[in-house]
Amino acid sequence: MSAELASLADGQTAPLLYLDGVTVSFDGFKALNGLSFIVGPGEIRSVIGPNGAGKTTMMDVITGKTRPDSGTVFFDGSHDLTRLDEAAIANLGIGRKFQKPTVFENLTVFENLELAQAGPRGIGRTLLAKLAGAERDVIAEMIRTIGLAGRERSIAGALSHGQKQWLEIGMLLIQDQRLLLLDEPVAGMTDRETEATAALVLSLAGSRTVVVVEHDMEFVRSLDTRVTVLHEGAVLADGSIDFVQSQPDVVEVYLGR
Amino acid sequence: MPGASSLLTPRGWAWFLGLGAVLVIGVPLLNAVPPAGAALQLPDYLVPLLGKYLCYALLALSLDLIWGYAGILSLGHGAFFALGGYAMGMHLMRQIGTRGVYANAELPDFMVFLNWKALPWYWWGFDHFTFAALMVVLVPGVLALVFGWFAFRSRVTGVYLSIITQALTYALWLAFFRNDMGFGGNNGLTDFKDIFGFDLHAASTRRGLYIASVIALGLGYLACRFIVASKLGRLLLALRDAESRVRFLGYSVDHAKLFVFTIAAVLAGIAGALYVPQVGIINPSEFSTANSIEIAIWVAVGGRGTLLGAIIGAIAINFAKSWLTGSLPEAWLFVLGALFVLVTLAFPQGILGLSAQFRGLRGRGRGAPPAPVPGEEGAP
Known about the structure:
The complex is a heterodimer. Chain A is built from 11 helices and 10 strands. By secondary structure, chain A is of the alpha/beta class. In chain A, a hairpin with a 2-residue loop joins strand 1 and strand 2. By secondary structure, chain B is mostly helical. Chain B has one domain. Chain B is 65% helix and 2% strand. Chain B has 14 helices and 4 strands. In chain B, strands 1-4 form a two-stranded antiparallel ribbon. Classes of the chains: A alpha/beta, B mainly alpha. At the A-B interface, helix 3, helix 4 and helix 5 of A face helix 8, helix 9 and helix 10 of B.
């Protein structure tokens, strides 16, 4: 059992996300190698690591896209995520923003949010769905939050890269998920957009649990949260950004380059 | 294109009802009222021909629902059409009664010829129209449900799905060719006499079947519009473009695909059932792989992801086919092939996208993705 797990046993609140000994290999290459990773409810956690450290694979395991070869993955205490498919995991309250912004390019900004909005997901209910006034208001509010006011009828494919990132974050928020996995949320953003994104993520602290995977050290620094450094599919260091940046092995594998 | 979120716009309804009235009332009147040979008289042979085009239009419409909106390029869609046609054909065979060549009240002619002694169990019930009508809907629907369940659950998409749908229709083609399957083998089912007691060769019966085809196409169009204008319609476009994103939103991609695939198969079956009494025959050639590919060409030429384009494409190409196969038979396949290449390369949005294209707009119609190359969709 890792030190992290032991510290958790000290009587802190029950974790929302619990990964222990997770191993995933692709053709012999171990993308994750006995990874243990725990996030408490309401926490905001940054995950950094060099290319190939297993960050995206970890997201894939949590969201059901990839099945681990071994190890346990639990959400909210009792839900074994290794036994569920993507849609079921999403419906448990785990949302994901992809590394490459993935919005529905042929739908408008409004329609993207309409599909993402929390609500029934069955086919019949979707076929007969009528958008209530209150739901419309929530979408309009979200469009303002993500800075796309006036663009609700634009086709999402016509948005700039940064705007797509924001739209996807908006889709996650309106989905009303408890755990948000953000894979490089500020990639391709201008400095101002990056600042605004950091403010948005920080405003979620307490109400949502957020795991941010990011390359942009300035962004991670501005979040100023606990940082987990991954390397070769396992945790290399864990602590504040200043602490991990002072670790010689972290500097060697990642920050020093 | 009508507004996306309402069934039809007021103008759309005016067009729909106006065109419907012309087709339901105008065409039969032009056929029935003026004396034969008069300038304005619509010749008798044209009525079932128009009816046939409308059945093809309904078939194309159903393919557009799954291809244009959900990105499922079925190249075996003709199989569902043919199954609906066979179900109707079996009913019409039973209606022949003792008027067959062998005057056998119990067995259709081809079974007498094969020396069969009793009617196979799967022919039971087809004496009754209601049972046959139920089978027209159920057989294609259940096959699509089972086939789709396996295919979508295993996440077969794009060109791989197209290939297995081709295999499906090919397998059925081989099976229906066999005499011992009990569906008339190579010759299929033909020599029909009447439907509901009305002579199938009478001009009035043909007008009736034609009107039924117009109504079926109209209702089919409204049903498809209802689906694509709903939130589910937007979900289909979403999963066509980014399937895994839809999964992470918590929707079941498999269920959504299965739903439209089954609906499309049922519509195709109904089209086949209306087609058979108007052309007077159903045989295994309807299962041929080339037939199914042709349906996709109608949709591509008309403009996929528009519903209306599928109808226009099916009617325009079949009109051209009737005319060309009459005047220049050997040229037809070359024309069809050239048309498909031309549309794919030069007019990716088909006939319906032409005006937008010539206006120099990028014209990214929501339903019309940039390049309709078969099999390209699916995996984003």
